């Protein structure tokens, strides 16, 4: 079948605007619902009272993880280089799956045993009895800096989506994206973020099934792959188009899962460790199907563009283009909402994690050290901390908007390395903290610093003449530094050992 290239002229009509308005109303409605259900204290606002079900947990983790990368980045990479880009999808899926075994159940139990920790820095401080607050400060700084910039990149994406799809001024698109996310995050906290992620993950899932299926049908089924081979045979070979170093680097993306604060915090909020196997099966199934859909969308886009003779300036817009051409305007509007869903799900998660770090890891620590919490009852303190958390959401959003105000900001280059930074700084530390009784505070500090610095140095040095992804040396050196430093320093206290054993005992009881 030959598609008519004239169909490519796209101007947003009332159908697209209607779907977008309905989408925004649903998100705000979820925020209001969550406000009434789960914002009585800081634990509820930041972790939903540790009462989130397995399906919401799984889809929330997936949606906040994949963001616009799944609907724009991966299809664009597959369109540009073919199946060789599939290695990153394999690495991410395997990494996410292993994360459900290595981190999820142990973190859910241990974070509660460790003085009911509600943030990753909070957990590290309690796990290692870091009375000086060194771990909390270092990890808190890393989270606040990286996620503020990361949040800005999502807002830039939202602004550009409104600009390209609706012809709306970039700055208005930026403000609308930020405004809607802030509203439901401000009022509903973690529960709102999780529920909206569930909704957004569903929208993304549908889009990544429908678009490639429709495209496959319209392009003549298996004939589409013959067309791709005739254009460039290497694009149908997963081993061509990239060297061994490239394959290793793409697979190494999976290492990042063990240290992403906005993902692993989901494991702390799940209702019970017994729900984790259900969450794992549901979450990985969602992820695998969605990633395959994204890959096929980009791959079929090669044949699609060849038949229509359309010039694609930005490969990452291939899904937008195909969804608008191949479907009814109402469905096309739904798919535009899916792309915005991917962007917003990550922004909201990053806003909340950054806010929780500011309040729990800095503000609350300051109040405790100055004695300001000594003469205030718990209810008033809870109300005050929730209010400050909401205000910090607004503060982080405003700073992110300022950073994102320039649509050509180099912030996107920095964010491209954020995954590696978090993965190398936190990944080895979390694995060892949850699985090695001997691991101590000194080892955790050394590992975190070495991991973060290695990634920064590797980026600045341009990979030292290699194409190796910076998370590989960062993760390896951080793990070595953590283990060696631990073995060279005193053993952990008796209380730390008892706490570790208690978490393991509870984990066995749950099983």
Automatic annotation (TrEMBL):
It is a multi-pass membrane protein. The keyword Transmembrane helix applies. One of its GO terms (molecular function) is sodium ion binding. Keywords: Amino-acid transport, Cell membrane, Ion transport, Membrane, Sodium, Sodium transport, Symport, Transmembrane, Transmembrane helix, Transport. GO terms for biological process: proline transport. InterPro entries: Na/Glc_symporter_sf, Na/Pro_symporter, Na/solute_symporter, Na/solute_symporter_CS, Sodium:Solute_Symporter. It catalyses: L-proline(in) + Na(+)(in) = L-proline(out) + Na(+)(out). Pfam families: SSF. The keyword Iron does not apply. Belongs to the sodium:solute symporter (SSF) (TC 2.A.21) family. Catalyzes the sodium-dependent uptake of extracellular L-proline. This is Sodium/proline symporter.
